[in-house]
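Re: iron/sulfur cluster structure - here you go.
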Amino acid sequence: MKQYLLNTWEALSTIFIGMKITFGHLFVPAVTIQYPDVRVRLPERVRNRLYVNMDDCIGCLQCARACPVDCIDIETVKSLPTEDLGKTSNGKKKALWVTKFDIDIAKCCYCQLCVFPCPTECIYMTDVYEFSEFGRNDLVYKFATLTNEEAKEKAAQYDVFMEEKERQKAEAAKAKAEAAEKAKKEKENEENKEDNKDK
Ligand code: SF4
Ligand code: SF4
């Protein structure tokens, strides 16, 4: 009988202690938030999804070279002398078409090393942290503004320009060699004439 009463007392007292703790928490401010209706306040220098402002990109590759995991893939094509690509917002002249600018954010370790060397400050971390995808390929962000067809066209135009330049260079070299040969022959003829007069 005594043991029965002790067990009953122990059960009631532990329930009371538990309820006291539970009741006390009713007046403690909540530490959880109702995500996604409520968002956490992010730190000022948070590192999340990268963004590239292509209007200011000069295709210098410095960001790609700085990346420790090679997740930035850039391809460029030189512009033709007749093309004016304009300037960046900090006054740098643009001379390259950026035909490819992919960032594989699934590989990115958010080190921000790509951001610091950029001479035009056009690549930077944003506060966007919700970018989950079902497919891994959807995590490769494509920033180039040219379509594939336009990129191919730019590359083909530059190849044609270089071929023409090489052809003109070869022609100029050939004409120079021919002129030198002609001048040499004329000089030899003059010298022969002088020799004949002396005899
Ligand atoms: S943050 Fe780091 S890992 Fe990510 S793209 Fe930039 S350099 Fe590469
Ligand atoms: S460092 Fe800046 S300007 Fe150079 S390729 Fe990267 S994003 Fe473009």
